[in-house]
Amino acid sequence: EERYDKRAPKMVITESQVGVHDLVLLTELTEEQIVENLRKRFQANVIYTYIGEVCVSMNPYREMNIYGTDNVNKYKGRELFENPPHIFALADAAYRAIKQKNSDTCVIISGESGAGKTEASKIIMKYIAAITNPESQAQIQRVRNVLIQSNSLLESFGNAKTNRNDNSSRFGKYMEIVFDFKADPVGGVVTKYLLEKSRVIQQLPGERNFHCFYQLLNGATDKELKDLCLSRNPSQFHYTSQGTIDATEKANFKTTLAALTSLHFTADEIQTIWRLLAAILWLGNVQFKSEDDKLEVANQNALKNVSTLLRVTETDLRHALTGRVIAARGDVMVKAHSVTQAEFGRDALAKSIYERLFDWIIEHINRGIATPGDKNLQRYFREIGVLGMSKEEDLVVCSPRSFTWRRFQDGERTVDFVLSYQGDDPDPGNAEKREAFERNLMSEGLELEVEKNQRIHFVKIHAPREVLCRFCEILKMRMPIKRIEGSEDIIQDEFHLLDEMKSFFGKPFEFVKLDPALFPERNKELRAEFSREKSYLFDTDRPDFFTTDVRIAVVHFILERQRFGHDSDASVGIEKLLSDGVYTNAYPLHDGDLKTPESQRFLLMNEWASVKQWIRHQPLDHIRDYFGARIALYFAWLGFYTHMLIPAAIVGLLCFLYGLATLFSNQISEDICQAGKSIIMCPQCDAKCDYWYLSETCIYSRFAHLIDNNVTVFFACFMSIWAVVYLEFWKRYSAKIIHRWGLTGFCHQAEHARPQYLARLQSTKKKKFNVVTQTLEPSVPFWKKKFPMYLVSFSVIFLFIFLAVAAVFGVIIYRMSTTTTRNLYGNTDSMSYKIMVTPVTAALLNLIVITAMNYVYDYLAVFLTNLEYRRTQTEYDESLTLKIYLFQFVNYYSSIFYIAFLKGKFVGYPAKYNRIFKLRQEECSPGGCLMELCIQLVIIMVGKQALNAALEMAVPFLIKTYNTIRNKFVQTTEEEDGDKLICCSQWTEDYKLLAWSSRGLFDDYLEMIIQYGFITIFVVAFPLAPLFALINNVFEMRLDAKKFLKFYRRPVPKRVKDIGVWYNIMHILVRIAVVSSAFIIAFSSNFIPRLVYMASVNPDKTDVGYLNHTLAYFNTSDFQEGTAPLQTNFANVTMCRYQEYRNPPWDGRPYKRPLIYWHILAARLAFLVVFQNVVGAVQMLVAWAVPDEPRHLRERIKREEYLTREIIIEQERLKQAEGRKTPIVATVPNGGVKPEDTGQLRHRERRNSAEST
Fold first, then answer.
1. Which residue numbers belong to the known binding site?
2. Does residue 190 sit in helix, strand or coil?
3. N or C of the chain: less Cβ packing under 10 Å?
4. Alpha-carbon gap, residue 101 to 96, rounded angstroms
5. 389 SS3 class
6. What is the model's pTM?
7. What is the pLDDT, as a whole number, of residue 568?
8. Where does residue 1233 fall: left (phi above 0), alpha (psi -120 to 50 degrees), or beta otherwise?
9. Residues annotated as binding site for ATP?
10. Chain center to CA of 798
11. Distance between CA 91 and CA 107 in Å, rounded?
């Protein structure tokens, strides 16, 4: 006992005798001091020591008189440190949390096998039973008795002899005591987890199976053994042959039998338990043999005993063990197992029977201590949990900061990649493939560690330095070379006037730059193609030399090309294994979670993906380190595109404001608004429509002026030039980024064939030799296989493009039909209402049709591309991109092209309208078709962007939530144990995230390119399009970042040198945009007719009278039969007006084209030629004046290559001089160049630069 001074309220400790009662009070916290303190206390019979609120217990392996009533009263109701350390203090603290704080609590008991965890849980139960109210002691005694009695039973079925402990618990146990609102115990529950089922079929040398098997063989009577077809010798059974019977097994069997009886197991239930154990033993003795390709059971006696014990027919059991039933496309077939598969299935059945037996025993125990009473009242009950957890078990209280959160169990090796699969995979063939695949991975040098402590098993992969060096050389990666004295001359910055001006004028905008404390500027590094022979260039021993993205890329490269079988060429690669269901997922790990401040993921989430940071620059280098060059380049392009939209948005806004400022000074709209009742317009439909006053379109004409005004042509020219400037400057900007990331000169290596491609050609006998990969590959006949698939694929594509056009045509028919139905208009006297309702409803209908057809076509495009024989992933992606974008182009733009170029151009005149399906074509209003084109653009462009933004965030969130719930709670047929997936590591956290799509960034690029088409091809009709695009992209950039960081698993980094085919698409769109702008201005706006009127018709050279000049006269007596208004509110109308250039009815050639029409047409065609050539010439000039790479970048690349080559030459010379011994650069300044030669080297550099200049 420790000695205390009775006169002092505090404890006085004689440290020389019993050490320190709390290890935090040690003067020096070292391992030696801690062990020495525990040794002193143990020798003084003091087995408990505190570490703060943690109690360390040392097993004395003998009875100790420290748990009596006196000790119970001593600790009852006392604070933790009022008395010497004791487990009673912890139990009392747990009970007081229930009684005083009304909160649940848990005692975690952890330690080595044999440390005394079971005894500790018994002591806690005893203490709680002793301190509860006397009235409730009977109840807790009942709970305690059941739990204690269950201990011996669960030890029999859940414990086994290991090399470290003769009674090692091979499962985790969590006991709960439930208290009502008065803190009286009313029930309890026992929960098991992580039962070591594999011990049933296999044990390590020197270990045994579970105790119950040996207890049954030694303790049962001869008659019982005879009834069970058993013998007392465990070596006669395969599953128990490694173990021997202990002398105490007979007594332990009686204890187990007594526990079963006291826990109210019936005699039949007890007999069922013994029968199942016997069936498992005989099941292990079932052997198989293959004769004439037919699988048979080798020992029929064992099979007969199993069927008898399990009470199934021998035939059914034989069929279940030797084959499996496959259902495919409505057909059911039986496929025979191989010997290995049959043995795997036999062992799986044995494990499943034992686990279900174990679960049933626990359920029976829990029924005996179930909490009685009203379920509604039980919501207010509280619990004390006692968790017994062995140190060998992998279930630990984890945090993102633990050493094994992203590492192997040794806490040192990082996890570079993770493979996952179902723990109880029903297909034995999958286990063989996994074994072969993982064996081949290890033969490549990768290090693997398998985690099997949950229903989802994980294979952790680590790439050691030797593997990274070897494959970096194979992949020709450009890696940073060592910092060498004098290398500053290579990478020093030069003076550039433009950069200095940008720096000076950018000082007021310092707030948009990144915080240098969070994202420090990267030091410029020299890079060279990695080579193990030139190891003097690279500091491979530096911890951060092989960055995470390099490690992931190397491992993924190996996974893609590793074999898992010998039967066919299709047995290659992780993608094939994933498609076959051998593995469920394969993914690299995120860097921590979103709540760990030290992680890169947390930093990017808060400082980049947050919408609050919308105005700041992007940390592109850090994005590249985290996601790889492909995704980083996408965000670099999106950011550059967004920044380039700023001047376009400003000019577009100014043009809109100009139209707003001149709204009431526009002659055309003023003439319309002041026309009053002087201008009567012809009906807009046959028979049912009345005449109408032109002044009714006053508001509509004013809105049309906002986009069709004097600066429209200037804005069209500006946007055409802007588009070229944007593309040219992007090439320059991307060249600098690519160089900074060490990807200059990168070209795609020969790609491995897609697993899907190989699977389709598995039966092909004809092979061809691939000269690049030096392997034989299946040969695909072009005319027999490829051409028919291509023909079918593109025929269907053009069919669906035709359907898209037909859908637009249907919308056009809808617009025409609405003009003939009065009831759709509501107030028929409101012409502005008529003109606005039809375009809006038609645009909304078109948006719905577009969205619906998109989903159908996306599925169809993937299906058709899968039909084609696309060998590599690049070929596959390009084919898919071509299909989808071609359809999207027609789907989105066809209706807009109709309004811009066809509507109102071929209407005819009242006496002879051009009709489609006997319906009159739509007419442009007197204000022109540009306003309606603007409405269409606003609804489709803005509506699509808003819908995409909502779906991009909502869909991943819902899927992630569903996966989280499913992984935790849903029990499927493949997951027979139904255990929850416990997230105690980065790989389990990432498992519930969404898998990275095989289409990658395709949808994100597509959305932006569609937007780019809107703001270039049709920007004339919607000057605010760049502004809306700018606002959308500011949020799109951050939402995309958030989506990738929060909802998706980390993608595999990919090296790219540009944005690929998307640049070519934008280049084509620029050419189309010039032609489109010219046609819109020439044929859809009033610009050219107004200029012709002012130049050749009006002597005052003004547009006064222009409105009247554009309206033709029509004699109402010339209406075709049945087309004149049947009912009219206008009296004595003899003349009406319509928008056309035609002769009046009194002319000698009534209703024919006048000469001015041909003048205007000639002017329009001339404008087309002039506009396209002038703008095209300016575009060519800009493209010529802006080089693809800055001059200083080209010079720097040459200088780096030259001086790196000089260093290599010098190092190779020194190697030869020293007998081919590789020098260490750290001991040779300036990379092996002698100090006296440094000036000469620099002189040669300057001389060569001068010569090149």
1. 111-118
2. strand
3. C
4. 7
5. strand
6. 0.65
7. 52
8. beta
9. 111-118
10. 33
11. 8
